[in-house]
Amino acid sequence: MKRYLYTSVIALLTICFIACENDPITISYGTPIKVDPSGVIAPFTYEVKAGELESFSSSYKLRIRVLAYDVDGKLAAADTSFLTNYAGIMNTTLTLQEGTYTLIAITDVVRYSSGKTTLEYWILSGIQDINQTKITNAGYVGGKNKILGIDSKRISVSGESSTVNLAPSAAGALLCIRVLHMHQYSDVTEYKLLTNRNADFLTFDSQGNALSTPQNVNNQFKWRVAFFNPQDEGYANYSGYYAYNFMFPVSNANYKFVYSTESETDEELATNMLVNLEKGDEYLFLLELFDEEDPNYDITYDYGKVNGTGTRTRSTELPQTPWMKKMAADAQNAAKLKDLIK
After folding, report:
1. Average confidence (pLDDT) over 206-235
2. Which of 4, 49, 280, 324 satisfies CB 3.0 to 4.6 Å to 320 for a cystine?
3. DSSP string for 154-221
């Protein structure tokens, strides 16, 4: 009986040993990755205040996320770092098995407090599959903090490797919108810049290339790029104001300035500002409600690329709208009344 049990145990151990010997041995390697985000803001050379695009307040951080996808497009590893500015460097090591991978690095600015993200302007979803990965506009007004950077690279892992360098660049265009002499017309409640084409999200192909899908609702100006309320207390001490907005690439986009009063909504001021937004472009849209150089012109506008080889277009006097004609008539009547009083 004892001999039988002994033989059975030996046989069982032999079977287990053979089974273990046939199991595939998985070897993983540490893959060092370095991400330099400085190139994200490098093309944006026009600033209203020097240096304002390079940094952000202490309550915000530059978030850098690195995603690694295998040949089947499945997420194999990921990591996240938070930096204080664009001059910082992210260094990380991802543990990857032998094979080919697509790396994607994403940079964005978030509000960060007590080790937690409390506000983000871009929502990253579907990351388990590269074909489902999506970056969507969260819908908040973020100004220069909405600048988004992306880079991707294909790598092969077959052993301990040297550092992989990723250098994200701007995933879209930066717009600077300025309104000067904003209090020139006291009954205006709001000035806006609107557009008829927009892209609210990015997706990725199997190679890690970012793709934008422009939206168009029968060429209606459905998207608000910027707005200014001259009657708001925050604008009281400023004759002019400006805002930044970051937008994904879109071609043949038309922009227009509009105004609103208590009785009128989105009346046109400057129209037919056609542009093709590309990655790394920077555009200025300027509405000047009083021309100091030529008082004969009440309202002028200026728009176009302000970086690279772009040129700006300056208008002549804008056609008078019914509201502007009324304002002029009121001014003439006030002048006549003043003369009668004399």
Report:
1. 91
2. 324
3. EEEESSS-PPEEE--EESSEEEEEEEESTTSSTT--EEEEEESEE--EEEE-TT--EEE--EESTT--
Q: Please report the DSSP string for 253-318 in residue order.
A: EEEEEEEE-SS--SEEEEEEEEEEE-TT-EEEEEEESS-SS-TT-S-EEEEEE-STT--EEE--PP
Rounded Cα gap, residues 82 and 314, in angstroms:
42
The partner residues of 300 in beta bridges, in order of sequence, read 288
How far apart CA 79 and CA 71 sit, in angstroms, is 19
Exposure class string for 175-213: b at 16+ Cβ within 10 A, else e: bbbbbbbbebbebbebbbbbbbbbbbbbbbeeebebebe
**Cβ atoms 204, 104 nearer than 8 A:** yes
pTM of the model: 0.83
Rounded CA-CA distance 131/128 in Å is 9
Residue 148 has which token pair?
């988004």
What Å distances lie between residue 274 and 133, 142, 304, 313, CA to CA?
A: 31, 24, 9, 11
Q: How far apart are CA 214 and CA 197, in angstroms?
A: 6
How many Cα atoms sit within 13 Å of 14 on the Cβ side? Answer: 6
Express each pLDDT in 66-119 by its tens digit.
Answer: 999 999 999 999 999 999 999 999 999 999 999 999 999 999 999 999 889 999
* Nearest to 155, CA basis, from 103, 206, 105: 103
Please state the length of the chain.
342
Work out whether the CA dihedral 228, 231, 236, 239 comes out positive or negative: positive
Which residues on neighbouring strands pair with residue 91, listed in sequence order? 34
- CA 279 to chain centroid, in Å, comes to 10
